[in-house]
Amino acid sequence: MKSFNSVIFTITIIFIAGCEYSTPPEMLMGKWYVASVKANGHEMIHDYLDQNTRYLVFNEEGTYQVGLLDSVSEKAWMIHSDQNELIMMDGSPFDDIKKWNVKASDELVFLSDKNNHFNITLNRKKKLPKVKINEENALIGKWVIDKVTVNGYDNSDKYAFPNRWILLADNGRFYNGNETGDQNVGYWETNSSLTKVDFFDQKDQGESFITFNIANNTLWYEKQNDNNAPQVRVYFKKVN
């Protein structure tokens, strides 16, 4: 004959097993870092997100934020807890998919679309990093070469740059030169997430001839070489 305690234990296990998993909205509220975006099993995060957009914030009032620079508070979210379904009603950063299956814990969230083509992993963040260049106007001014790295190591002392600079003007023009005078002029524009600056010969030209990356208060580009050449990056800092 079973003891009273074993009977209670058995009943408890049956009760727990019979409970359906549900995701209350409180488990999604807060700041999240997008750690992984898999499409059909392949990691694709760099095709969808960059260093400024790899963040999601679900606010208590029912709005959500995509990335560090998103100031729009009209994006709405809701969750059907009993169905474990998250709805991002004003579009999603992932192929504009609005409905997601969701599993959440205190520190992790897993999202998948109804066809299980996309699988997203979110890690909870206590606070978001600060972005020093947070508007296009912050790019306007004169930038000078500050550092040159080769395969990640500082090799600035081996490269002679006689005060080379690039000036980003507020009319969308750029001027590039050195201490002897201007060498190049053209047009520049940045993307919406303020992570890249593209340079064009002509204002209406479709493809840029070079792209700079934005990282905090620095502009940098990588020289294009063949696969066997060393990785050379040139960094610019703003002087005014």
UniProtKB/TrEMBL annotation:
This is Lipocalin-like domain-containing protein.
